[in-house]
């Protein structure tokens, strides 16, 4: 078979031009960050479908009160945890890492990541980790302790199953993968910038990945330590007691360690999205970002504060009131840098000559919906309110507004935005818009009503509920099914456009000024033909034929 | 041909540095931050379990039997000495005395191996003699079982690091012997040194927490 492609998509060796097998092998063993990025994105897509299927099963079961499609309550009990694990650890984080692998080295004018082999290793840890994590499905031993795995529920007394052991080991491996990735990003950004580029001239997406990498580096190992202790407690019952109160352990200790990771993890899942939206809004508003320096400092502030708020997940555990009030205050403080970012994006759009292509639609809708998610976050940050709403559907609504209307929408904005750069072709705009509108509408249909459900007292993770909640649950379920199906429009669009889409220019959106828009679409192996040079910013809007403007940073 | 040249030019760009240190060094520092946080998690667990009201924590000096604190203090001294010898490896390499650099590297490796040997001896003694409840359910622990649990996880995780470090140092030693690492490749030795010094530094924390306090 003959392979017709260009740029980094082309076969690297003579054999690969004629043999599909050799061509695939080149991809699987590649050290090119762009190819590894694509591998991440393919993996993340499969995991998104898998996590989406699990969520649809949950919602179909909940469409009516009483047991419907699932007869085994234990199986239902495992689903929310498995859905969350798939979406958080195997979809959102790898999806952002994928885009960043492609874009970050190019944005800083580097030919590749600092450690190309480590990069490949970090990716290839993920598929075996996924197999381990979800092994319970094949062995009929699904862990039922949710994605948080609180002991004593997750210890060997209450979850004496192999599936749980595999799940824990799978998560440790994911942690290893993402820390290796973070080490790589940091070394790349700090050390491989092209001549003339200072830290405060980095594009905001690169900044976002830098801050995220610091978060991963400082937070993920703490989860690993907690999971190590959990593993030993599970493997050697009667010998190791860390969390089991029966042996003098402290279950609250696990929660502290777990949330010391998992709260920063929500920023690991949203900061790259912030970066993507910053790029999209600049290009489609045809204006430079408003308050660049403040945008960077806000991200740093969010990251630092993110480490100081973990106990707001533990208001209901009986920790001292003074501590709860302190954490409430710090949690609410995060609204300040987040607000600065929201207003900076709005100010960037203000007076801009805005083009509403699909990436911009996703970015703009993100601003509106993430604000709802952020505000409901302030609501549950208040101790007295949280005590009432704890473990209700309000929390489910909040986290989905943040992660679906936040992370997922920004990921779509980023993928649509850079698709012409990645493949050299445009996606189909009409299909993109259909996908956007269905997604934006049905996210709200699915999740908005869950605020009401939570306030009325419907608990999360329950198999059955009061029939009074039936209509609201039905609406949410219908929304989730349409939302899930709408995503196949995206996949079809991407697959079709990759082969048949309209050919894209180098600067596909015409207004891109960061380095990735100065090189060919798709980029060549090693990105640049000669060493790029970054000229200081000129904050004025000039066209590519006018020297001295934003455009002449890399002369090909 | 033109594209091949372009690709060659691009290859030469890999490894360009803007901070004045190699990628490897920066990567190792980042990795060590990560590793320090893992130890921090385990030490936080230790602290929480020990200072929980009602925990029946023994005095370490009584809990270790004849291997005691003295033997581990000697072991700590050996590990610190191996860190000093690691400094000599780099110093001699920079002076171009490759023969002496190799000898110091051997000294470092032996130091690591002695550390592991003494730790293995201590573990065997503790498991077989001092804490029989670990294997035999008939016995009851004389004190809080969390003591043994945190002891094993902290010293075990550190021991794993020492083992990895010894293997790492052996690879460097082989490189020095075969001439693959020359007197100009100081960065390779320096990065291995960073890891080895970190392992020492963490041990001082672990030793203080588990044995001394």
TrEMBL record, chain A:
Query: Which transformation does this protein catalyse, written as a reaction?
Result: 4 Fe(II)-[cytochrome c] + O2 + 8 H(+)(in) = 4 Fe(III)-[cytochrome c] + 2 H2O + 4 H(+)(out)
Which compartment or compartments is the protein found in?
A: Cell membrane; Membrane
Q: In which pathway does it act?
A: Energy metabolism; oxidative phosphorylation
Q: Does the keyword Translocase apply?
A: yes
PROSITE patterns the record matches: COX1, COX1_CUB
MF annotations from Gene Ontology: oxidoreductase activity
Q: Where does the Cytochrome oxidase subunit I profile domain start and stop, copy by copy?
A: 15-539
Pfam families this protein is in?
COX1
Summarizing the function annotation, the protein's role is: Cytochrome c oxidase is the component of the respiratory chain that catalyzes the reduction of oxygen to water. Subunits 1-3 form the functional core of the enzyme complex. CO I is the catalytic subunit of the enzyme. Electrons originating in cytochrome c are transferred via the copper A center of subunit 2 and heme A of subunit 1 to the bimetallic center formed by heme A3 and copper B.
Q: What is this protein called?
A: Cytochrome c oxidase subunit 1
Source gene? ctaD
From TrEMBL, chain B:
Q: Which SUPFAM superfamilies match?
A: Cytochrome c oxidase subunit III-like
Q: Give compartment(s).
A: Cell membrane
The reply on keyword ATP-binding is no
Supply the InterPro entries for this chain: Cyt_c/ubiquinol_Oxase_su3 (IPR024791), Cyt_c_oxidase-like_su3 (IPR000298), Cyt_c_oxidase_su3-like_sf (IPR035973), Cyt_c_oxidase_su3_a-hlx (IPR013833)
Q: How does it sit in the membrane?
A: Multi-pass membrane protein
The primary site where this protein sits is membrane
Q: Which UniProt keywords apply?
A: Cell membrane, Membrane, Transmembrane, Transmembrane helix
Q: What start-end ranges are recorded for coiled-coil regions in this protein?
A: none
TM regions (residue ranges): 26-49, 69-91, 103-121, 141-174, 194-212
Domain Heme-copper oxidase subunit III family profile span(s) in chain numbering = 25-213
Entry-linked Pfam families: COX3
Q: Which family does it belong to?
A: Belongs to the cytochrome c oxidase subunit 3 family.
Q: What is this protein called?
A: Cytochrome oxidase subunit III
Q: List the source organism.
A: Lujinxingia sediminis
